[in-house]
Amino acid sequence: MEMVIDPRSGCHYIDPEFDPVSDGFPPPRVSIDTVTCEDRTIVKVDGVNRPGVLLEVVQVLTDLDLIVRKAYVASDGEWLMDVFHVTDQLGHKLTDTALVDYIQESLALKIKGGSQRPAEVKTCLGNLLGAGHLPSDSTALEITAADRPGLLSDVTAVLTGLSCEAESCRAWTHNGRAACVIYITDSTTRLPITEPNRLAVIEEKMESVVEARHNPGELRRVSLSGPVERRDHMDRRLHQLMQDDKDYEAGPPPPPVESDQLSVAVEARRWSGGECREGGRSEAQCGPRVSIDCWKERDYYVVNVRSRDRPKLMFDTIWALTEFDFDVAHAYVSTGGSIAVQEYYVRRIDGTPETEMEQGRFIRCVLAAVERRVAHGLRVEIHAPRRDGLISDVTKSFRENGMSLAGAEWVRQQASVVGSFYVTEASSSSGGPGRVDPRRLEVVRDEIGDGIFFETNDDCSGDGGSHLGCRSPSSVNSSSGIWSTLKEKKCRPKLWLGSLLWSRIGQFSGNSGSIQS
């Protein structure tokens, strides 16, 4: 594998060794241009197209805590050419040569279909990635259940009692359902748990915990597995768990399809606070809108997604397209202010047309994929020295002080634990996330001690913790004034870009907003 630097453009690129699987095609190439744009880095990927490769490419960028400012995808046929304008989550272009090299090697391996990972690298948020940080090396606990206050607290408490350490976790809630993936180790050895008898005992205890908080006949699932050779990516696994749990079935039904135009459009009205108003005045507070249309002349389905911009949005959308066996032939992704616009030209991999019923289900599933990562409520962050039972104590304190968790994520980083929790009032009678009494938060702080911070905006919508460790001093407050709200930015949404899709290629280095991958 040879690395070359073009002195004229400043682009770095890697030409991997020829893959015999793609005999007759040139080797894949990944180039990273840090010169052309002052405020962003341009990542260009071209290689042999295969099902699922776009999701894997976007997953690499997402895992590295990068923000995709703009993206163009062209993969109609046997070859793909993708372009991503990226920055780190601090808004800076990429200057770390180790990170650049990692991106090049990771993307080249993904295009070739390999499962290897390059050596270790640290992202701008301090997260470590690489061959020594694979989920395959962990014991994984998976739970899907009804969203009930105190469930995660009970789970972590029982794990602590069984001498297990919750090394990392991500938990989502959506439409009254909850799912979490927890990687656990033995609290004494810090090694994955592999003994079959002990795994069986832990799984039985977890099933009892979940069953105790469910009514007869309610769906629930608990699974515990030791280290495996290739474990699914955590976010992809969470999407799959909630999809299998059919969280997308809640909510208003989609409108009927008009047979003369084969078009379906659904608007999801789920507020992050306040009233949704049309005309772009408060569009960021509206729920996502998804449509699918049949372009018969080109044999495409055109999928449009318009929503509030947030981290990992592009990844979540492409996951849903991949889940429905859609191949993305072309796509353009951009934003206007805080509104993200995504347009995908797709075909079914097997070539079969979508029925009216399938289109309605597809729209529900895309809406769910876009929504389920978003956690409403007050964001509470911890960055505390690692100790046995820390997470159990944190979740217990929330529960005993009348708070419910709408989402959570934490990870061990060397001698510390870094995490984000979204809390609401457990006894809220409004049907939505209730405002938390600040006096209860003071009690939680006193019980947990140093290293706990509160988001200044109590009506925030989160991304499931993708900003861990990336907070400015003004965005958190550990004393008073935690209810000061952020001023809402007015924005002008962009027009749809479908009619301009083909003409935009030559203008691709122009200014744009940000779509956060």
Automatic annotation (TrEMBL):
Residues 42-117, 140-220 form the ACT domain. Keywords: Repeat. Transmembrane segments: none annotated. GO terms for molecular function: amino acid binding. Pfam families: ACT. Binds amino acids. PANTHER family: ACT DOMAIN-CONTAINING PROTEIN ACR1, ACT DOMAIN-CONTAINING PROTEIN ACR4-RELATED. This is ACT domain-containing protein ACR. It comes from Platanthera zijinensis.
